[in-house]
Structure formats: C-alpha cells, structure tokens
Amino acid sequence: VQETRPQLAVRLLQRLAGAFRRLAGAFHATLLSTCCNAFFNVLNKEALNRWPYPWAVAWLQLVAGVAIVIPLWASGLRAPPKADLQFVARTFGPIGALHAGGHGAQVVSFGAGSVFMAHVVKALEPIVGTIIGYLFLGSKPSLMTNLSLVPIGCGVGYAASKPGGVDFGGLTSL
User: Fold this and answer.
1) Is 142's pLDDT higher than 90?
2) What is the dihedral of CA 60, 61, 64, 66, to 10 degrees?
3) Is the pLDDT of residue 169 over 80?
4) Which of 161, 174, 169 is nearest to 48 (CA)?
C-alpha cells in the first residue's frame, strides 16, 4: 500500500517530534547535570572557606559515597558487582586511586583558587583523559578525536588569558 503525501508528511512530523523530545530530554538532563555540578562546586568552596582542609573534605565526600552504596548492596536494593578480589585489585584499584586522587586535587583547587579557574581547568578533562589513555592504555586517539579537542584547548586558553583569569593556585587540579 502506497502512502499519500499527507500520510508521509504526518509520519515525518511524528518522527521529528520524537527526535525533538529526545533532544529536549538530553538538553534538560545536561542542564540539570551542569546546575548540580555548579552547586557542588560552590558548596565545596563554601565548605573550604569555613574549614580549610581540602584533602579531608575530599576524603569525607568519598567516604560518604561508600556509606551510601554499602547499605544498598547489603540490603539487596542494589546488586553488588560480581568480581573476584584479584580482578578488582588489578582493574578497579588503579582506576579508583586515580579517581580519588583527581577528586582530591579538584577539591584542593577550589580551596587554593577561584571557582572560575577550577572550571577552566576542569574543561581540560577531555584532553587530559585522552593523554592518559594514550600513555597508560596505549589507546591511540583518532584524527577526529584530536581535532575535537582543539576547540577545548582554544577555549581554555582564551578563558585563561582574560585579565585575572589565571589563578595558579587553581592549577593544582591538573
């Protein structure tokens, strides 16, 4: 059965509407994530202004995360990961140590400098991640990946070049 032009138009509009809903959902999720991240960063700065021990604050935040997850595993509300101790130590140990160190360095940067500079440095995360992947995992990024990092580097350079933009205390998060 061949569709008429109005039927084709209706079907196309329905597909476009579905795509628009998915795009709007992704936009709102990104906006919510960005707002939560900004709120978290400002709260970190406030906490560090009142209690200037950034490594202690970072470790307390990580301990709070563990304190949330373990009861979920113990109660069965969330299934614990199925992995032996050797696999966890070999795979998740180094990743966990890098994540914990990175989180600590981020909190230190909020205490040492401005929230603005910490955000500028955090924008470098894709570049740093690509370099770490290359150096430690042997993952060679494609030309398109490298080209997609150029605007990030340019944007960070531009933001850091603003008067008062570079706060070397905030560079500790690298």
Assistant:
1) yes
2) -100
3) no
4) 169
The neighbour count for residue 60, using CB atoms within 10 Å, is 15
d(CA 171, CA 174): 6
The residue behind tokens 């955000």 is 119
pTM exceeds 0.85 for this model: no
What pLDDT score does 165 carry? 60
Please give the Cα distance from 171 to 124 (Å, whole number). 11
Give the tokens for residue 75. 């109660």
**Quick count: other Cβ atoms within 10 Å of Cβ 104?**
20
Distance CA 137, CA 7 (A): 52
How many residues in total does the chain contain?
Answer: 174
Return the DSSP state at 124. T
pLDDT, tens only, 22-42 = 899 888 888 888 888 888 888
Least confident range from 36-45, 79-88, 116-125, 152-161: namely 116-125
Structure tokens at 23: 């795009």
Residues 92, 81: contact at Cβ < 8 Å? no
| Alpha-helical segments (H) within 51-142 | 54-75, 85-87, 93-112, 115-122, 125-137
CA distance 78 to 99: 22
Backbone angles phi, psi at 136, to 5 degrees: -100, -30
